[in-house]
Amino acid sequence: MMQESQLMFTVSLPAIFALLILIALVLHFMGVREQTDMVKKSRLMRMGGSLLGFTIILVGVLWYATRIGFSGYAQMGLEDIVLLTVLSSIGGIIIGFSARM
After folding, report:
1. 56 touches 87 (CB < 8 A)
2. Which long-range contacts (CB under 8 A, 24 or more apart) does 61-68 make?
3. Which end of the chain is more exposed for a tag (fewer CB within 10 A), N or C?
4. Which range marks the domain in which residue 27 is found?
5. Model confidence pLDDT, tens digit, residues 12-47
């Protein structure tokens, strides 16, 4: 006996990504504006940069994960693999630079 499930609500991934990027930018610019405490300044800038890098990586990965979730499969061509590689590389570079601050 199979039970049917109903979709109660949907989550908008672009809205979540936009919110994460906004939070990362606010943290980073709060660090830039900090003048008195250098430890707080570097910590805020590091957190903002790391969050921005992780968000950029998650954008590509979760985009294809949702395509697989909705259709059961995702055909990936060379341009899709290059896009994932570029997004992951950019995110990793941002995380690396923010970790070295």
Report:
1. yes
2. 61/88, 62/13, 63/13, 66/13
3. N
4. 15-99
5. 888 888 999 999 999 989 998 988 988 998 899 999
Question: Taking the model in full, what pTM does it have?
Answer: 0.77
Residue 51 lies in a domain: yes
Query: Which amino acid type is present at position 86?
Result: V
Q: What is the number of structural domains in the chain?
A: 1
Answer whether residue 84 is part of any domain: yes
3-class DSSP state of 20: helix
Tell me the two tokens of residue 94.
């941002």
Q: Determine, yes or no, domain membership for 67.
A: yes
For residue 72, give both structure tokens: 């059961």
Are residues 78 and 41 in contact, defined by beta-carbon separation less than 8 angstroms?
no
